[in-house]
Amino acid sequence: MFGCYRTYLALMVFWGHLLQLSGLGQYAVFGFYALSGYLMTTIMSRSYGYTRQGRTRYLINRFLRIYPVWWSSLTIAVIVLAIVGKERATMFHSSMYLPSDFTGWLQNISLVFPSMKPIDCSPRISPSIWALTVELFFYGLICLGISKTRRATWLWFLLSCGYVLYTYWAELDFGSRYFPILAASLPFSIGSLIHHYPKFMGNRKINPWFLIGILPLNWLLFVKVLTVKAGLPWCSDVGLYLNLAVNAILLSLLSQTRLPCISTALDKWVGGFSYTLYLLHWPIGLAVYAAFLESPVRTPWFEHFGLTLVVLLLCSCISELIRLFVETPIEKIRYDVRSRLR
């Protein structure tokens, strides 16, 4: 149900980062957070349960889903950084270089950056992995039962809204509503609410493809036109939360059906690219830019668009290899972990 949607969000991150389309990746990440809130609450409620055994198997399966693929991608990223070197790598992204101490390696290997604002931690061998620290944090809270009941989830949602309102009261900047772990609480809680109210859209007939098309148009209007061109900074906030609402509606629709004209098998296959594309686009992007350019510096999208297509092709090929040799064998173990609860 969510495969094409996940990869679409990953592509928004891909294009946003490599083509310097500021804000596009942020819109996608909030969509990812909402989707994770829905999926984690759903599998805890329907597949694992809140017993000690259920929680243990949930955590084992989350580990198996996240870390083998990450460690495979990490190996590739380390090789790229070792070849390219720190000086050229930091031209591509300031946080992208090999750690010089045990703590740095441990943080990158574990995906745990010990900060309420993990994006401030460096180095990050693949810069986007700061958001995985956020994901892991809320995976843990959902495991503990923060979204176990409707009442608990509503309380979580209201507290999340309280944080957002606090950032305005304290006159904090836009980044405070996106980068910190607490900022992600709102989309996660919304995703969890959708689990408890799966039919809140009623019988409304909205084509999911329409909403998918709305996502980049919303970004274009509120970020590129109103915020940048018209000089209205408050529009970036309006666009971000409108984007979250669109993602919530889309998530509710896709929880009940699949995308029109997309088979279940195709949806699953396309969705298999999302995680590796998210992990690999920075290191593979660096490798390609360093191979073709004397200075691997990201430029406005129209200057090196062709290189990003090469990056996308390479990421897709590597993703298929990881799926074949890493994910497929691991998936059999994950199935065994789930099936033992039945």
Shape field? globular
Determine the strand fraction and express it as a percent band. Answer: under 5%
Indicate the mean pLDDT.
92
Radius of gyration: 20 Å
Order of helices and strands: HHHHHHHHHHHHH
- Low-pLDDT parts are none
Structure summary, number of beta strands: 0
Counted by DSSP, the helix tally is 13
Structural class of the secondary elements? mainly alpha
Q: What is the terminal separation in angstroms? A: 23 Å
Helix fraction by DSSP (H/I, runs of at least 4): over 70%
The biggest sheet amounts to: none
Q: In terms of topology, how is this protein built?
A:
Layout: H1 3-18, H2 24-48, H3 52-84, H4 86-92, H5 102-110, H6 130-144, H7 150-169, H8 185-196, H9 208-229, H10 234-256, H11 264-271, H12 274-292, H13 305-339
Give a short synopsis of this structure.
With 342 residues, the protein is mostly helical. It has helices spanning 3-18, 24-48, 52-84, 86-92, 102-110, 130-144, 150-169, 185-196, 208-229, 234-256, 264-271, 274-292, 305-339.
